[in-house]
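Q: Structure for this?
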Amino acid sequence: MSRREQKCFNCDSGVARAAPVEAERERRVTETIDRRGLLIGLGGLAAAATACNSSAQPPARKLGYAIVGLGYYATRVIIPQFANCRHSRLAALVSGDPDKARRYAAEYGVPERSLYDYRSFDRIGDDPDVDIVYVVLPNSMHAEYTIRAARAGKHVLCEKPMAVSVAECEAMIAACRAAGRTLMIGYRSHFEPHNLHAMKLAREGAIGRRRYVHAEHGFVAGDPGQWRLKKALAGGGSLMDMGIYSVQAARYLTGEEPVAVTARASTDRSDPRFAEVEDLIAWTLDFPSGAISHGMSSYSSNHNRVRIAGDRGRIDMEPATPYAGHSLRLVRDGGEQRLAPPPGPAVNQFVGQLDHMSESAASGGAPIVAGEEGLQDMRIIEAIYRSAAEGRTVRI
Amino acid sequence: MSRREQKCFNCDSGVARAAPVEAERERRVTETIDRRGLLIGLGGLAAAATACNSSAQPPARKLGYAIVGLGYYATRVIIPQFANCRHSRLAALVSGDPDKARRYAAEYGVPERSLYDYRSFDRIGDDPDVDIVYVVLPNSMHAEYTIRAARAGKHVLCEKPMAVSVAECEAMIAACRAAGRTLMIGYRSHFEPHNLHAMKLAREGAIGRRRYVHAEHGFVAGDPGQWRLKKALAGGGSLMDMGIYSVQAARYLTGEEPVAVTARASTDRSDPRFAEVEDLIAWTLDFPSGAISHGMSSYSSNHNRVRIAGDRGRIDMEPATPYAGHSLRLVRDGGEQRLAPPPGPAVNQFVGQLDHMSESAASGGAPIVAGEEGLQDMRIIEAIYRSAAEGRTVRI
């Protein structure tokens, strides 16, 4: 199974049941397209239905997560989703702020004995309730806590960006491998039906030969004191936090790895928000097929869109990678069609991600967004920074 | 008047009447925005209403055009528009195909004596019916026929791209200057209300500080035998024909001139359409303010969109530069609004362009898209080609 093929991550009994699930998804996709009568020649989608290659077995019990770092994303986006998980439950909280930890513990029913701080963190190895450590800390702390968790014998789900350097990513992969533990990166778009459907359409020829990807991600950064704007904590600016979605989209929609990058950054250093990290950064990726991608990210304007153009049509997503409310359009044969892909087996991308991690950890199977996926993005990100700094094309 | 400010090109009696026309346009824009209640702080638009700086007087009579080259654009797009012009009329046809010339002459009431071919073209100097020569030939012939027309004592409207090299553009400007004749380039977007309104909004601060422009133009080229795909006739591929709209948009929306360009081309030379010219080409423009533009053009996929993002909002146009059916959206303050700019004084962009040329020729005033505008685009286009060929950033 290539890294670009989707493993059926929520099948109940392996390949035997997964294939019909996948076929049913294909059938619904094809019908969606046929109903509108705008598109022809996509019958191959149904015929191309792929069997689920996963050997993952559903865990016999829900696996316990320790959430490390109690910021907005952890407490308001991720933690509430455990209620919707089939294979995952909240087991422990790790925070440097005991009051905050106790408050969320009370809200989500985590016992006092399962609260850790950053000094006591390594004792998590003795906690049988915790199977998986989910690192939701500022970027510069990802490597340390991933490695400490692996050494404590826990599997690790680590937020994107995986770390702040290629060297850190490699150390994280090595630590998890040495400990025999699963490492996955929090690339939620790989569990989101619109993005999955776009990957599938692109891969299966719905837009012909893939030629050009354009991807924009950004938001207007507010408080200059936030960790995202501190180089020591974030490792970089908009590229680390948002541009990584643009890089990801170019890779998962072309199905290729870039061989060169040429970048430009533009930052007003007199703006107190941008004293340490870049604001606007824009780059070009060259792919072996001849496909080209323009990507950008910004901390001073709002962006969330992705387009891939092929020689038979194009796919537009805007917004492409929100928490909810995705839009997917297929433009072909003179017609434009808004597609509503069938929902995945998980209720949303966050649940899909958590449960896929649990299944991977339980079965020992490689997750679809393993550490190597994060490492590859970090190679590209480092090349983008180098290109922008040196004013030249950088080979990857 | 800077090159980026719009001259009121259809005012009836100069500044005295033009100012109220402009003020009325401003009022309607402001009301359009206020009605939706989404936008605030744009009151300055009305206060900023600019007086018409044109000293052009409407011609006492309709000026006569000779159309040189009877391809699709000339015969199906331009010629029918003379019926809607106030200051312009069709006076002569120039073609290498006498049957075709006679057919269109009959259709549009052009007398036999006003039909020319490429050998008899220079006799047009003796034709008092012809004031303006409109060059709608393949790109490589623009320079020759512009220069011959100027030497014959005629004003010239020349289609974009102005020519196929900077040297040719300079020679065309020099020839028209030496002959004391007006030279204008067929940049129809400068006479199109949505594009004019986008320029105005961007210029007047509606999206704050301008940071990023993305512009895509392309279509799927068919017949490999068409002149657009022959290097000797077209001078280049998708960049010459379509990418020039992306370059233009970056310039007229930022209101700046780029200082450097970095480009990549990607062409399948085994495709018979692309044996001589480029298919996909993508570039980055650096502007002095720090604004960055990504532009692209293609002959293997359909594209027509432009976005400019500022630190207070963005403007989206898709399609941005069609013959008709433009769309303009302003995204700000959490709201998105489709804007319907008030129509210009001309019924459409083609009529606006023809009549502005007539007014400029009659008055001796500089047209808003004079030869220097085409020359500047050609400097950028040459830099894009050089950058793509040499794999390095090229200063402009």
